[in-house]
Amino acid sequence: MARRATFQKAINEALEQEMERDSSVIIMGEDVAGGTYTEGDSDAWGGPLGVTQGLYTKFGDRVMDTPISESAFIGAAIGAATCGLRPVAELMFIDFMGVCFDQIFNQAAKFRYMFGGKAETPVVIRTMIGAGFRAAAQHSQGLYPIFTHIPGLKVAVPSNPYDAKGLLIQSIRDNDPVIFCEHKMLYDMEGDLPEEPFSIPFGEANFIREGDDVTIVAIGRMVQMASEAGDALAQDGIQCEIVDPRTTSPLDEDSILESVEKTGRLVIVDESGPRCGMAADIASLVATQAFDDLKAPIQTVTPPHTPVPFNDFLEDLYIPDTERVVKAVRNIVKGN
Amino acid sequence: MISVGILANPASARDVRRLIAHASTVTVAERCSMIQRALIGLARMGVDRVLIMRDHGGIAQGLELAQKNRRKDQPLQWPKLEYLEMEVGGEATDTLNAVTMMCEQECRVIIVLGGDGTHRLVAHACGEIPLACISTGTNNVFPKFIESTVAGMAAGALAVKKVQQELVCLRNKRLMLEINGKAQIPALVDICVTSEDWIGTRAVWRPKDLRELYLSFAEPGAIGLSSIGSLVLPRARELDEGLEIMMEPSSTNGIKVEAPIAPGLITEINVDSCRPLRLGEPKSIRIPKGTLALDGEKEIEFNAEDQVKITLDPLGPWSINVDKIMGMLAKNI
Amino acid sequence: MLDLNRERLLQAYETMKTIREFEERVHIEFATGEIPGFVHLYAGEEASGTGVCMHLDDRDSIASTHRGHGHCIAKGVEVKGMMAEIYGKDTGTCRGKGGSMHIADLDKGMMGANGIVGGGPPLICGAALAKKTLKTGGIAIAFVGDGGSNQGTTFESLNLATIWNLPCIFVVENNGYAESTSSKWSVSLSGNATDRAAGFGMPGVEVDGHDFFAVYEAAGEAIERARNGGGPTLLECKLNRYYGHFEGDAQTYRPQDEVKNIRETKDCLELFRKKVTSDGIVDVSDLNAIDQKVMKLIEESVVEAKAAPNPAEQELLTDVYVSY
To answer: CB 3.0 to 4.6 Å from B209: which of A158, B194, C95, C109, for a disulfide?
Structure first.
């Protein structure tokens, strides 16, 4: 039987193995070790949810706690990347991008282009996304479309432990700036996880399930909803093809278009919001490039265009669930 | 109407000694605070009017803000603050012009906040008007660290004639400097001849470059170049003598002293000779080429064609003795 | 400053003169309308960039502002490439894809002029961290203006550099104007950035930015301190810019004769000339020879830049990523 481990473990392992392999890989972020200069334990936190715990004990100074100064330390990670290090910086919550966005989208993303091809910025910014934690509006967003919009950045949104490890290792080895999005509700998810290091290329979707009746493109945690919907619909004779893009930039457009060419029907389920989000982006791609293959209107399943509510009942309404995916499929596919 | 002048240098305590030694930083904010304390002391003693320069370094701006943004439930305890009507260029001449105007407008005392360099400039323009000398920064010899509130009270007491000038003031010495027959602004504490080619950032701190030192006084407990003298042959301010010191880093004769020439910087100085410097006896400097530092700041580059003469002079500025004044105000019951 | 021998003095003059003539020429050429976009000229500030960068070598990195031509030249970026870049040509330092505000040459440790005010300091913290971690002996310098000294990124970087003890220097080039706004108002306490360093426990030093020797000496001490693990310094150079914030700025916010007076009394090149020739170390003819050499270089740069081709059409899509 394959070894099973959590999404959290997958990330910790990817970091550990890459740091072992390459001494230029360093980690920095708020509380990534935790306990710096206190009288208590060092390595006290390992990040707010313990994802990086143990790394400080093993690698010492290469795991650096930072003050709460995102502009400075995200910028520092970027600057260091142009000068020979391969930093993995942690932007604790993607919701905090507002306090360091310039360094990411105007500096890191544009160096290579603006400087005529002479810059390399091998920085990884790991960040937590997603709702469900009852963390409310400022700690629950899925803002990866904003990074996806910026040319020069790569964006990974893994949905399971295997992809998390493979994509993080690829991110660290990649010479472009990467935004690596970890859904906070997935940390405890268990899955098959090889012990040895391996990498997954960017821009290659994963087909979770094959089917002829409808294509469901699902991102991040929504892959679970889509999978459950696929199981439920199969009982009704509806065979769903579930495509997990794994990276939103670059996006595996070919796989999506080929799948729609086969099925003629598309449902997109994504936790980023309905305006200018991934659902809108993928819908536009398919509508402009595969219009003739479509046998029904494109369906999108997203949260409403609101901030994330605090109340648990309301938050659960906010997050797209399996039932809504099933409903969307049934809008365009007749079952038995 | 009783008037007092305040001359505060916004630019001191920002030089390279903060970097190569442990010189303190006295921020502009702190200087504003010191002035406000002095204003309260002056007001309490009955001084009506205070003249101050509208500097470009943040002090005047800070005082205006303090007036504007103060708590409404606390009345302002200052004398009438007047800004001198003059052009301010951010140069040494500003100080000279400001002090000249203060004298013309009948200031009875001038409170100076600054280092040796600031006091040197004020002294050149203040004539017979006594100075209350407040040090800002750790590298100073001429002014002392005195608390500004009390300094304001003391200066105020003198201005309103609660005490007599002859009893509470000292006439300081100064070092006259002539280059090719042309008089320069005299130094109050020291003139140092260094072998360096360039003025650069003005500070003097490399012992190997020091060659000659002329001191108007050398008090024990002083920091800076005059400590070299005070560790060999102390000369009090009140004494009719200064010191003339020759240094040669490479020679093996002479006396070695461990001198604190800058805050946090104690170096070994080789003193070849140290003689009393008498009033009125001009001295010609010996080395052919180098720079002259006056009161701790390199200012003049000279070479073999220049004739440089230094003379100790008794007619420097009057300075007030704050402790003495406050002592005289004691009720002695 | 024993290392300021004849050769070094001539080098300093040549650097400052190259910057001056480069900027004066760009000023003229920009007015013809042939240069696209924005340019921000460094004329008047030469002593600052030169006095600092003369201490640096290939181990060291600098990050600049939108007013970056002077820093580029002082750090050794090739002048002809720079002029071509300003014209947006394929032979430019950045293949015509960056322009005046983004000229960079990472091989020479020039991490870029920056279109974002305050964009440099965090990057320099990173460069310094890299040099410290990789033990290259290098240091990193962030140039910011008085305006940039107010950006949050600058404050964060001052703090981070201090607590991580980074080998870096923050040079605040205070020319009194943040675009059209007086820094005496916008930088609290009458436009003095130096005092802020004290708030972070960092040494802060102010020098006259028109005086090459003052800048050179203070910068030298700060750089040596950084190289030897002593941590960061803030160096404020008080100076003046001759031209507007950008070319095309009518500068109505400046008093009538301000620039004229500054050019007459505080021209750092003239001050330098006077000082070095009065001692006999350097002859007027040496400096005049450099003047001629520089004018020739600038003339050639412009001629070649104008004649150079635009980037090819497909260059629109290249170099977005390393891998494709």
So the answer is: B194
CB-closest option in C96, C104, C160 to A73? C160
Q: Which residues of A touch C91 (CB under 8 A)?
A: none
Write the ipTM: 0.87
**Closest residue on chain C to A82 (Cα):** C127
| Among C111, C112, C109, C118, residue whose Cα is nearest residue C193 | C118
pLDDT value at position C1? 60
End-to-end distance of chain B based on CA atoms, in angstroms? 32
Interhelix angle C6-31/C284-307, rounded to 10 degrees, is 40
Q: Which listed CATH number (3.40.50.970, 3.30.70.330, 3.40.50.150, 3.40.50.720) goes with A4-192?
A: 3.40.50.970
Say yes or no for a CB contact (<8 Å) between C190 and B200: no
Query: Can you tell me the distance from the alpha carbon of C46 to that of C57, in angstroms, rounded to the nearest whole number?
Result: 19
C322 contacts A176? CB cut-off 8 A: yes
Q: Is C165 on the interface with A (CB under 8 A)?
A: no
Residue C270 forms part of a structural domain: yes
Residue A48, pLDDT score: 86
Predicted pLDDT of residue B57: 83
**Partner-chain contact A102 C127, CB within 8 Å:** no
Q: Enumerate the active-site residues of A.
A: 139
Tokens of B157: 């007491």
- Which residues of chain A are within 8 Å of residue C201 when distances are taken between CB atoms? none
- Residue A256 identity (one-letter amino acid): I
- For residue B182, how many other CB atoms are within 10 A of its CB? 8
Torsion of CA B195, B198, B202, B206, to 10 degrees: -40
Each residue's pLDDT tens digit, C185-242: 888 877 889 989 989 989 999 999 999 999 999 999 999 999 999 999 999 999 999 9
Global pTM value: 0.89
Position A336 scores a pLDDT of 65
Nearest to B254 by CA among B234, B265, B269, B233: B269
CB contact under 8 A, B200 and C217: yes
pLDDT for C256: 86
Instruction: Give the domain A206-332 fold.
Output: Rossmann fold (3.40.50)
What structural domains does chain B harbor? 3-172+317-329 (3.40.50), 174-313 (2.60.200)
Q: How many CB pairs lie under 8 A apart between chains A and C?
A: 153
Read off φ and ψ for residue B257, nearest 5 degrees.
-125, 150
Query: What's the mean per-residue pLDDT of chain A?
Result: 96
CB contact under 8 A, C104 and A176: no
Sort out which chain C residues have CB atoms less than 8 A from B58's CB and list them: 184, 189-192
Asked if B213 and B245 count as a contact pair (C-beta separation under 8 A), the reply is yes
Instruction: Compare CB distances from C221 to B19, B25, B27 and report the shortest one's residue.
Output: B19
Residue A113 has its nearest CB partner, among C152, C320, C323, at C320
Backbone φ, ψ for residue B250 (5° rounding): -90, -10
